[in-house]
Amino acid sequence: MKLYVRGTTYEGRAVDLRCRPVAGGDVAGAVRGVRSLPAVDAPAPGPVYDYCGRVHPAMGLRTKTAVAAAARSRGHRTTHDDALAELRERLADLDRAEPTLPRAREPIDDDAVATLRERVAATRGRLEAREALGAETEAVEQRVREAAQTLAERETERAAAEQSRRQRRDRAREYRDRQARRRRLADRLANRRRDARRELLERVSDAFAATLDAVPGPVPGDADDPLDAPPVPAALATLRLARTDAPVVVETDRFPSPAAAADWLDAPVVRC
Fold it and tell me: Per-domain residue ranges for the chain?
């Protein structure tokens, strides 16, 4: 790995930055790619890094999830993996954007349309009466055409408004149904993930316990379950159990040197 800190280049498997004004969180963020400085040239981090990429006294740790990720990094699979892949694929199909709804149209009142129809009928009646009398009809014919055109426009607008409301209602219902299906699938996926995590933990629990016993420094022995160990030793044990190519940020005095930390973790180390 290479690190570029305030004009100085650091290179190697173990880098000591305790003498430089750079925070461990900034280094870990740069390794993750969420910060541009300090510049880091190193392998991309895997899922384990999200839990243990920075080891420091104030950290928390979702130990079971981290250990399961460590098992995955070593190539362990579970009987639930095919179901997990299928559920993820089905969720991806449902994870579309909200539907684009048709433009809402102002509704046309039925009474207004009925009034227009009556006006057209009355105007046509006057036209027929004048035709029967042999009187001049040009002006009345114009009023009939205008009234009929206005009626046709309003009926078209009313039909379009009704279609728009129907489409908006149908698409909104479809989206709600899709969201309900998505929630059900997400629940099933969460359950499968828990089942897979449980299976992974069963496979590596003994190895984790043995690794935890080998962590340098004190490990409180009052926990009945090794997975209940404090975050720092649990994180170090998880990192040793995992395959970790990205540089780990270590902010603990459990190792005599950064090189010793890198050797024990079998991973690149940045000491901050």
Answer: 2-82+205-271
